[in-house]
Amino acid sequence: MFAKIHAVAQQVSQIVVGKDHQIRQALVCLLAGGHLLIEDVPGVGKTTLAHALAISLGLRFNRLQFTSDLLPADVVGISVFDREKSGFVFHPGPVFTQVLLADEINRATPKTQSALLEAMEERQVTAEGVTRDLPEPFFVIATQNPAHQVGTFALPESQLDRFLMCLSLGYPDATAERALLMGEDRRTLLKSLAPVMQAAELIEARQALKQIHTSSALVDYVQALAHASRQNGLFAEGMSPRAAIALLQAARAWAALEGRNHVVPEDVQAVLVPVAAHRLRPLKAHTGSTMGARDLVLQLMKSVAV
C-alpha cells in the first residue's frame, strides 16, 4: 500500500522536478487527512504539483481561481429554477470534488474564504438550509503569494488552522531548472500521466495510519513542544490542541512512508515546521527586528529536549 504512495511520489517528481522533499511532505499531508497551503511566488509549480498529485492518486480534480468578485455561491453551488420540474434544482459548485485547488485564495474576500471552512473541517456543505456530504477523500490545496499583498485579504487564524501543513516550493536549483528549460511542456506531460492509486486505496492507507504506534514518551515530546510554544515568549499564541493533534498525525504519516510501524522523535521533527509555522505568530523582538516563523519554530525545536 505504502509502496504505491512512493510510486506516486516518483511519478510526480518527474513533473515537478527537483522538489522531492516538498512532494513527500504534500503526500504526508494528504495521507494524514489534512489540507495543504502552498505559499510562494507565481510560476514555481504550485498548480502543477496539485494537478499531478490528483492524477497520480486517481482523484477528481477541480481548480477554482479566487478573485475579489468571487461569491460563496461560486464555491459551494447555487439553486436554479428548473421550468420543467417547476422547482429549484441545486447545481453543485467546484467544491464537490476530491482535490480542490483554491488558487490565490487570499485574493477573495473573507466572506468567500469562509465558504470553505465547513467543507474543510466537516467534509460537508450547507447551502440554502440543506447539508450535503462531500466525496471521500476530500483534499484542499490552496495557494497564495506572500510577497505581494496589494488587493489581497489575509487568511484569518481560524482558517489557517484548518490547513494541516504549509509549504514553500522555492526556486529550482540549476540542474532542475535546466531540465525544465530543455524538457517538454509540463501541461503536455500532465496529459500523459496515469493513475498509480485509486481513491479506495488512499482511504485504506489513511485507515492503516491508526496502526502506527505512538509511545507515551513520544506523546510527552509532542506535548513538551506545544507547551514550550506557549511559554517561551517567541510567539503571540502557542500551539493549540488541534495543532498538537495535527503534528502527531503528520508524524505518523511520515513514519509510515519511512517504512516504520512506530513514530520516533525524528518523525515529529521532520514535520514540525510545515505543521506549526503558519499557525504561530511571532512576537516582535526587543531589538525591533522580527524573525520568520519558520526560524522561530526551528529555535523552538532546539530548545526542547528529546
Question: What is the alpha-carbon Rg in Å?
Answer: 20 Å
Tally of individual helices: 14
Query: Uncertain runs with pLDDT below 50, 5 residues or more?
Result: 286-290
Structural class: alpha/beta
Summarize model confidence as the mean pLDDT: 89
Order of helices and strands: HHEHEHEEEHHEEEHEHHHHHHH
Distance between the termini: 31 Å
Descriptive account of the structure:
- By secondary structure, this protein is α/β, with parallel strands linked by helices.
- 44% of the residues lie in helices and 14% in strands.
- A 5-stranded parallel β-sheet has the order 2-5-8-1-9. Strands 3-4 form a two-stranded antiparallel sheet. A two-stranded antiparallel ribbon has the order 6-7.
- The longest helix is centred in the C-terminal third of the chain and has 17 residues.
- About 2% of the residues have low confidence.
Topology:
Layout lengths: L1 H12 L6 H12 L4 E4 L6 H11 L4 E5 L6 H5 E6 L4 E6 L6 E5 L6 H4 L3 H6 L1 E4 L2 E4 L5 E6 L12 H4 L4 E3 L6 H9 L3 H6 L7 H10 L7 H16 L9 H17 L7 H12 L16 H11 L3
Parallel strand pairs: 1-8, 1-9, 2-5, 5-8
Antiparallel strand pairs: 3-4, 6-7
Features:
single chain, 306 residues, alpha/beta, 5-stranded parallel beta sheet, two-stranded antiparallel ribbon
Quick gist of this model?
With 306 residues, the chain is an alpha/beta fold. It is built from 14 helices and 9 strands. The two termini are 31 Å apart.
